[in-house]
UniProtKB/TrEMBL annotation:
Transmembrane segments: none annotated. This is ABC transporter ATP-binding protein. SUPFAM superfamilies: P-loop containing nucleoside triphosphate hydrolases. Gene3D superfamilies: P-loop containing nucleotide triphosphate hydrolases. The keyword Repressor does not apply. Signal peptide: none annotated. InterPro entries: AAA+_ATPase (IPR003593), ABC_SmlMolc_Importer (IPR050093), ABC_transporter-like_ATP-bd (IPR003439), ABC_transporter-like_CS (IPR017871), P-loop_NTPase (IPR027417). Keywords: ATP-binding, Nucleotide-binding, Transport. It comes from the Bacteria. It holds the Pfam family ABC_tran. The keyword Amino-acid biosynthesis does not apply. It comes from Urechidicola croceus. GO terms for molecular function: ATP binding; ATP hydrolysis activity. Residues 2-233 form the ABC transporter domain.
Length: 314
């Protein structure tokens, strides 16, 4: 089990990690999400041992990790970290880069390199020098290199930030399934809702250096505690309960995803259409409900100014 207890960290007198505690079990994938600057990368750097913390501890299987003041080379042997600015050696080949993390004594060295390149869909670049790759291709090689050592714990910071959508879906399916099959404990800092919702065992939500939620993807998505949490996964509406004609509401506002509002022939909820945005599988309709701008999904675009009636889908 990876355990983080009461960690705080300060950059230039500004506290950017504020008394954080959490744990995650071996073989689990914990996604770390939150707005830019909330402290995701700093947290990963602390866990890996790049940053020294005055307060708090990080432990793996009940053994306390000692941090950068105790090691000349940062990082623990059983752990690997892929930062946002992945470091590869540009003037050697993809094979040689990945090979740096596999022993020369390993009889299956080349097979292992090929298998890793298969995971990241880069097989045809085995003999290519890294300098001749695109940013997205470099990122895929960096992922292959970091998993080559089969660490017990893997920390990834925005691992698919340079990968196009066309390739991203296949890549993350391959990678997350591969890591699961190896029982590698995974922490991923990400802005991508799919990385977290579709693959993580649990999601940790950060805001201003603190953890504000930790739960399964289903529970977080279906019952977001506030608009900040919901908006990390999807467009979300925060609508005054009275505008939705709720009788004796328990809360002043209600959080609803766009697919939870449906146009009906007649209802008590009347809104005026402002704009329609094509989303591929549907249109996202922007409308005004009393004084609130709301968004809902519809199969057609709707002309500006039209008055429509809405119902809430359970
Ligand atoms: N080297 C540094 N010196 C001073 N402040 C820093 C340094 N690195 C990060 N910070 C600050 O620490 C806070 C947390 O930064 P961090 O990079 O951990 O956020 P993040 O959630 O990973 O952001 P992003 O999603 O944009 O990568 C930010 O306010 C940032 O400005």
């Amino acid at each position: 089990m990876l355990k983080v207890q009461n960690i705080s960290f300060t950059y230039d007198k500004i506290e950017v990690i504020k008394n954080i505690s959490f744990s995650t079990d071996k073989g689990k994938y914990l996604a770390i999400v939150g707005e830019s600057g909330c402290g995701k990368s700093t947290l990963l750097e602390i866990i890996y041992g790049l940053l020294h913390v005055e307060k708090g501890t990080v432990s793996w299987n009940d053994e306390k990790l000692l941090g950068p003041n105790f090691y000349l080379i940062p990082g623990e042997d059983f752990m690997k970290y892929l930062p946002q600015d992945f470091d590869l050696m540009p003037y050697i080949t993809v094979e040689e880069n990945i090979g740096k993390n596999i022993s020369f004594l390993d009889e299956n060295r080349l097979d292992k390199i090929k298998k890793l390149l298969d995971v990241v869909d880069m097989s045809e670049f085995l003999k290519t020098k890294v300098v001749n790759l695109s940013q997205g291709q470099k990122q895929r090689v960096a992922i292959a290199k970091v998993i080559a050592k089969e660490p017990e714990v893997l920390l990834l910071d925005e691992p698919f930030s340079n990968i196009d959508n066309f390739r991203k879906n296949k890549l993350r399916r391959n990678l997350f399934n591969y890591l699961k099959s190896k029982n590698i404990t995974l922490l991923v800092a990400t802005h991508d809702a799919t990385d977290a919702l579709s693959f993580a065992d649990e999601i940790l939500v950060m805001k201003d250096g603190k953890i504000i939620e930790k739960n399964t993807p289903e529970k977080l998505y279906q019952n977001p505690s506030n608009v900040y949490v919901g908006s990390l996964f999807n467009e979300i509406n925060e609508i005054p309960s009275e505008d939705l004609k709720f009788q004796n509401p328990s809360k002043k506002t209600v959080l609803l995803y766009p697919n939870q509002l449906k146009i009906v022939g007649k209802s008590e909820i009347k809104a005026t259409v402002i704009q329609s945005y094509f989303k591929g599988n549907c249109y996202l309709i922007e409308a005004k409900l009393v004084d609130t701008i709301i968004y809902f999904e519809h199969h057609n675009s709707i002309v500006k100014g039209l008055e429509i009636y809405l119902n809430i889908e359970k």
